[in-house]
Amino acid sequence: MNRVVGIISLLALISCGGPSESSQENKAKEENILTHSFARPAEAQVNHLNLIATVDFDQRQLKASAIYDIETASDAKRIVFDIRNLTIEKVFVDSAETKDWWIGPEVPFLGQPLEVAIAPNTKQVRIDYSTTEGAEALQWLNPQQTAGKVHPFLFTQSQAILARTWIPCQDSPGIRYTYEATVTVPSGLMAVMSASNPTAIDSSGVYHFTMNQPIPSYLMALAVGDLEFRKVGESTGVYAEPSMVQATAFEFEDMQKMLESAEKIYGKYAWDQYDVLVLPPSFPFGGMENPRLTFATPTILAGDKSLTALVAHELAHSWSGNLVTNRTWDDFWLNEGFTVYFERRIMEDVYGTAYADMLTMLGKQDLDMELKALTDKPEDTHLKLDLLGRNPDDGMTNIAYEKGYFFLRTIEEYVGREKFDQFLNEHFASNAFQTITTEEFLTHLKEDLLLNDQAQYAALKIDEWVYGPGLPENCISVSSALFDQVNKQVELFLSAEGNANAIDTIDWTTHQWLHFLRHLPGDVGASKLKDLDQRFALTKSGNSEIAAEWFLRAIENDYAAANDEIESFLIRVGRRKFLMPMYSALAKADPTLERACAIYAQARPNYHSVSTNSLDELLEFDSNGQTAK
Ligand code: BES
Ligand code: ZN
């Protein structure tokens, strides 16, 4: 489809898609929307949220009213919201306070249903509530945990099912709504959301936001702190603490180019402005694709722009994920696999094929490791998951990202890039602001890309990719000339006469270093590491990816000279992707867990619940942070 037609059909869909579907259609969809939500959208569904909130840093609490415009079926009797660890104070139906509301029993990690009695002609429901200490989406930071050390900081992380811990909502990726918000914060701080944002601090402390495009609840986001905005390009910019904003703007200088490249490939950016907010280092993820405002870890500020594929990734979610959304968390690969594919297309377009090939090779290594780790759980290596009764977090592995990526690359190579791009363009345009299931995507693929050619469908082994374990044998193979050079140096370094001074690392990029470090054998030995460290000062590396990989080798080989840096890294950084392998390596090196637990006990107060939930399990801590050891 050409661009103009694409945009027109996109606009048509905005005005007639979503909640105005007949309630029968809604009912049919309801069943598979609801795997991780108590909502009953076929009976009553939210359309628009007006959130009025006050941020209280002293109490570490949000006090708020969530006022929802709703749409009801002709026989609607109730509307159901998801809540978890919220205190519900009052409920109003069409402006009149009601006592006809109930909170159902608690289900592990899902929380509770909040049911409000309504009539078929009810238009609005207002819930007055406050958050509690159990709000897992929120991380409250004291000034010491920020770059500036003077002001406190708050940020949210709603994906996958944590939005319900800070807003009562219909918390399913299959339910979309628009929103506006008024947020009051202490004077001198700035509030930003996944919405239209201020570009300067307002001394009143009151900020207004609008998100005019319908989004699912997992994309609700708020951050409050001493923030400054810096424009990067025509419709791109960065937010960070004042002491970091200059470095952030430099690191992400290519954002506008990335945005233009993305638009060239998959059509117009649907969200007007694209900014990145760099958070304090306890942010548990690399990045989170909150619409209009990606949240990102400061660990990608390497000083040389070498870790900005993450920005391309979160930007790519503006199409895959935010515009066309997985209907349930079982379809998570539709969000992440597509996004990794798109991320690498953007990186290829902006930095060239050799660069993108390195990213792909590292991705393949991640995939191979994940497949190995999941040997005993083959069903978790399917693209389509079955997470009913499980925490969606269980399904958020490299399978969705990298097996998803290789599936799409395999199709691309089979049909040719031009045809595949055309198909994907049409896919984003015709499903804009809607959700899709894996099955709907496969039907679309079969009919519109493969033109119902059974032989092609079979040759591509599509069902095996999606519903089978492991990696099908028709997976494309990948290579990188730049990594081949590294392999030679690994060999040389490990050979009898090899040493750190003999190897040629001139002009190596971050990715080549990662490849090198990943290919040192697990038992390379502390003396070889010392040799490398003396020449390349890897223990002191300011590049978080290189440092984290290096620390793994150091732990495995008991290279004690890195111990102090390992500890201070684990205490400062809260990014789960780094923490899990490092603590696992510590646990493996010392099965008594003594060393791992000693560091963790110190570091834990700095981590977000997303990270502590995973680490408590690994290190046998209870949810109050007490060790069994
Ligand atoms: N949407 C994800 C982060 C996420 C996934 C949060 C599941 C909660 C549950 C985000 O787009 C992402 O994939 N981030 C990656 C970086 C990316 C470059 C692979 C991360 O944080 O490591
Ligand atoms: Zn992602």
* Assembly type: single chain
Count of spatially separate domains: 3
Return residue spans where pLDDT drops below 50 for at least 5 consecutive residues: 1-22
Q: Based on Cα principal axes, name the global outline.
A: globular
Going by CATH, the homologous superfamily of the largest domain would be tricorn interacting facor f3 domain
Structural class: alpha+beta
Bound molecules: ligand BES, zinc ion
Number of strands: 21
> How many DSSP H or I helices?
20
Biggest sheet architecture: 7 strands, mixed
Approximately how much beta-strand content do the residues carry? 15-25%
Cα(first) to Cα(last) distance is: 61 Å
CATH class of the largest domain: Mainly Beta
Helix content: 25-40%
Q: Give the CATH topology of the largest domain.
A: Immunoglobulin-like
What CATH architecture label of the largest domain applies? Sandwich
